[in-house]
Each structure stands twice: as C-alpha cells, then as structure tokens.
Amino acid sequence: MFSGLGGTPYIILLAETTIHEVNIMKNEYTAVVKQEDEWWVGWIEEVPGVNCQEKTHQELKESLEVTLREALEFNRQDALSAAGTGYTEEKIAL
C-alpha cells in the first residue's frame, strides 16, 4: 500500500474524454501516487507500464495524463494493426 503526506493513503482519478463517431465515452483511471524524498512517483493501476516520476505533485499528474494518453493510443494502434482487415470495434462496459 502507498501513502501520501502524513502516511495517509490516497488516489487521484484522471479523466479522459474520447469522441468516437457519435458516441461520447468518459474513462476514468486511478493513479496511485506518493512522495519519496524529493520526488513524486505515480502509477496508473489499470494500465501496466504507465508510471512517472516528477519533482512536484502537479507535474506528476500532468506527466501521468500524457503518458496514459500515449499508452492508450499506442495500444489502440497496435490492436488495429494486429487485427488487419475485416474487424469490428465493439464497446465493452464494466
């Protein structure tokens, strides 16, 4: 478990809005953040490999958002490339 200032655990929710055709979908992801010495470090729980380290809490949030967007776009392009032709895209909600 990670803890924030004063040892209190906490999370940050980052929101991404994507417009696809006529559907509007809002995705939320959970950032686990903590301060280690002079650095703020964070991970996105739902997407392996999305983690960042910055000097300030605000810089960390911004860096996590950019990195998350890039990872999602990379994964999307990778999936479409792997599918080739003749595929359909279907939304799945949990």
> Approximately how much helix is present in the residues?
25-40%
Largest beta sheet: strand ordering: 1-2-3-4
Shape: elongated
For the sheet with most strands, the description reads: 4 strands, antiparallel
CATH class: Alpha Beta
CATH architecture label: 2-Layer Sandwich
- The arrangement of helices and strands along the chain is EEEEH
Q: Whole-Å distance between the termini? A: 25 Å
Flag low-confidence runs: 17-24
Structural class: alpha+beta
Give the radius of gyration.
16 Å
Structure annotation, total helices? 1
The counted number of beta strands is: 4
Give the overall pLDDT as a whole number.
84
Short characterization:
This protein has a single domain (5-82), classed as 2-Layer Sandwich (Double Stranded RNA Binding Domain), CATH 3.30.160. Helix content is 29%, strand content 36%.
